[in-house]
Amino acid sequence: MDEMIKIAVDAMGGDHAPAEMVKGAVGAVALRQDIKVYLIGQQDRVKEELAKYSYQGTQIEVIHAQEVIETAEPPVMAIRRKKQSSIVLGMNMVKEKKADAFVSAGSSGAILVGGQVIVGRIKGVERPPLAPLIPTKKGVSLLIDCGANVDARASHLVQFAKMGSIYMENVLQVKHPRVAIVNIGAEEEKGNALVKETFPLLKNCPDINFVGSIEARDIPHGEADVIVCEAFVGNVILKLYEGVGATFLSMVKQGMMETFRSKVGALLVKPALKKTLKGFEASEYGGAPLLGLNGLVVKTHGSSKAKEVTNSIIQCVTFKEQEINEKIRKNIGTSPMEE
Amino acid sequence: MDEMIKIAVDAMGGDHAPAEMVKGAVGAVALRQDIKVYLIGQQDRVKEELAKYSYQGTQIEVIHAQEVIETAEPPVMAIRRKKQSSIVLGMNMVKEKKADAFVSAGSSGAILVGGQVIVGRIKGVERPPLAPLIPTKKGVSLLIDCGANVDARASHLVQFAKMGSIYMENVLQVKHPRVAIVNIGAEEEKGNALVKETFPLLKNCPDINFVGSIEARDIPHGEADVIVCEAFVGNVILKLYEGVGATFLSMVKQGMMETFRSKVGALLVKPALKKTLKGFEASEYGGAPLLGLNGLVVKTHGSSKAKEVTNSIIQCVTFKEQEINEKIRKNIGTSPMEE
Known about the structure:
Chain A is α/β, with parallel strands linked by helices. Helix content of chain A is 44%, strand content 16%.
């Protein structure tokens, strides 16, 4: 029992909670017998969902949480006041080493605040970045940071590059991940003040495989594995990615329904098209880790279904097995950047 | 003759110069008899192209330019040294009021530098923004600024909002254009330091219809007519828009070629799909104006074909007819922001 990897899951967060969260947890324990999942939430509702499935009873435990943090609540207040919420309870479990990781599809703001305030940073880590995977033509890239760290400094971005490299190398098994910084041109002299300051630091950083600037246009082509930017820009990239993709898809669908001829064609095209576009989905890799914490916190999409929840739990297992935090601790601690 | 609107066109800039530039100019004078187009470039090559068409001879004049500024050249140097380039000659014509506007598909950097250094700013305008139109589900939005003004200040963004409103209202005939600022959340307290400082200024600006923050996800839905941001973020939005769109389209095409069944379907779907996706093209509205100058400079896509060139010339005509610069001069000059 003691060797089990323990994952706490917010059963109440997300659009399809608790049903899909519970289903995702059941899916994860079916895949791995060496993990234990704590489902945190309103126990009556969670148990009602759990009753629908059969699973190894010792692998799932329900932990009651009286309160729920709503997406619209101001995060700092919510974390401070709702001590009995699933998010605060889950974060506390990680802090107290009762869980190795916490997965939530709930309020991004509360997760970011809770991660920093409750779980706390690894010594030497200046700011913990939120690093979602985004789909590309070649697979996925890690976009780091999309979190709360707006107006970051150059030293933060260097740490993001290092943590992102460790993550991609060990969790996604990408050898010598290519690190690029988001810029408005390929040349070294291009950019805003932050990028100009960060560029030479990344270039001289021995621990990473820095390949230079990446223009936003080239991100979907998969030209880099770790895409470094400050959180405002990262957030814009992440959300525009979703927005343009969704708009484009809806226009393709609309176009196909335009005429009788196109409707017939749509029926024929659909299966192959669906298969191809499935590749342009990042959810199968799990959620976005909040890196650099004393433990692991993973934010999954608010719209997460069971499969993404299962994948996020498995992602936490890999994170633990690959000793990512030990590697971050070692790398950031001994870094010449740190003085 | 004196009442003619005079447009200078860089015949040498862009991937398809001079052929498509010349063809576009011929297209424009066919549409409007009250305009005169100056084609600036290597005269032998330009005249050779011109000889392919019939047009009203007095409406097109070729002006010889010995030099060409290449896309890769450092812009400041290029503008300073290549006095006989099509870009410098065109800018000088605008400066000397020999032309009302200059259209180029050449080096963005050289166009931005030339606009500021040669044509010069309207008194009171702190920085001239480059403002492309981006396609949305509902039509187009003006993305302002995508230019060279990285690390902008709040007062710059307020001017962008005003100039963008004037442009959308008068050139695109959008009544009371909705102005939004790019942000990472909808609430007023969200954002980086620049957005937090700018938000209340826009809110209290009497000349614009400010609707608050816009998240990148909602940009493709057309939730705002004027989308205000500083140039680094604007550049990321513009290029990611193109990148995700192009990647998505290539994946759709690839998906359709996957099986025999899908290939047959693709043939049936193609005409309707093409028609729908054409709506998601901004080039029919012309190029990106560099606003706030003593004249007009329009940057068109490097990949511009004749139609976009024609549209850009017509856009310059509307700009002149609607007296946009007089409106900007009046609005920025009398603004309470200016003190």
